[in-house]
Give the backbone structure.
Amino acid sequence: MYFLYGEKEIDYLKKKDKKLAFVIDYIGHINRTVDTDLFSAVLHHIIAQQISTKAQQTIWQRINDAYQEINPEIIYHSDTDKLQSFGITSRKAEYIKDFSKKIVYGEFDLTSIEKLSDKEAIEALISLKGVGVWTAEMILLFCLQRPNILSYGDLALLRGMRMVYHHRKIDETLFEKYRKRLSPYCSVASLYFWAVAGGAVEGMKDYAPKNKK
């Protein structure tokens, strides 16, 4: 399943931002996979922290191959050594075990997250061990498909914004300016900034000053 958006979001963003309009027309529609199972999404994003996309895909595939179903009971009753055997660090294994325990014993109400506002959902998620603001934002975007997520903590997204708008740096004030402009469809804008950061638009470069060696 892909993140759902269409002409309404695209038309709005193109009217609001000419530079982003060029990017949208150049790239076309982006099919970005989402995980609609919230428990699975939390696990996946904890595991994915600070490792390459290829590494997290490999680990996630190993987990899926090992278990017929990924649910709180199965993860909670799994040995930490087994979880680490998939390529997960001991700390991350502890985080996902603790998260699973909270679900199994009713200490964390996962079903309530979908009913909360973005701010409230982020506050609830960051109460979990191993979940920071960036992780919570990614869960909101790529699981709950919230329409207005633009993460200041995402380095690739900031790189894409520098490339689109020709800035040497995106500070919080400038970021907030763009967030307000692109709201309430920041999530769709995020997809295009990530695509630009990955080289989707020929000739676009990063204007950040290069570190002197």
Notes: The chain has a mean pLDDT of 95.
